Amino acid sequence: METGIPEETGVLGDEPVWRMLPPGLLRMRRLLLAVWTGVLALAAGLLPGLLAGRVWAAFALLPLALAAWGWRLLGRNWRSWRYAERADDLLISRGVLWREETVVPYGRMQLVEVTSGPVERWFGLASVQLHTAAAATDATIPGLDPAEAERLRDRLTELGEARSAGL
């Protein structure tokens, strides 16, 4: 069935087709939250409990309460990230309270790189970093599948080279 969406741009008319980040990024961030919460809860409960008495071990509940709140915030933040490839630029939107939408024209891109730290590699994720002449417009798309990150890098590089002839 023909959708009317050009395969190259992912755009139907003037409306961009938004892509969400994969759930692996949320799993990675929540695991890191759980690990650091465990360390903090142990430190906040064990040390005062041993040094000052059992009542002071209740301080371990504070990091656990903060982690429950952080768990929810991580989900909201993850859902807020999205990106769209348009005919002349790349859109990146993020933020829950303060929405931020970055528009990066293909012709202004100087460097597109794919990075993946050890934790990201363990979860099978990669990030795409876009560098432009203006430092304020550098943009990142975190937590992508490595194949999608490489596809996006190759496509953005190709479009950037094609549109930077006048620079």
Q: Which stretches are poorly predicted, pLDDT < 50 over at least 5 residues? A: 1-12
Tally of helical runs: 4
| SS class | alpha+beta
Main sheet: strands, sense, barrel? 4 strands, antiparallel
Task: Report the mean per-residue pLDDT as an integer.
Answer: 84
Order of helices and strands: EEEHHEEEEHEEH
Give the helix level as a range of percent.
40-55%
Number of strands: 9
Tell me the strand percentage band.
25-35%
The largest beta-sheet arranges its strands as: 3-4-5-6
From the alpha carbons, calculate the radius of gyration and give it in angstroms. Answer: 21 Å
Written description of the protein model:
The protein is of the alpha+beta class and 167 residues long. 44% of the residues lie in helices and 25% in strands. It is built from four helices and nine strands, in the order E-E-E-H-H-E-E-E-E-H-E-E-H. It has helices spanning 23-52, 61-80, 118-122, 146-163; strands at 11-12, 15-16, 19-20, 82-85, 89-94, 100-105, 109-115, 126-132, 139-144. The strands form three sheets. A four-stranded antiparallel β-sheet has the order 3-4-5-6. The protein has a three-stranded antiparallel β-sheet with strand order 7-8-9. Strand 4 and strand 5 form a beta hairpin. The radius of gyration is 21 Å and the shape is elongated. The chain starts with 10 loop residues before the first strand and ends with a helix. The model is unreliable at 1-12 (pLDDT under 50).
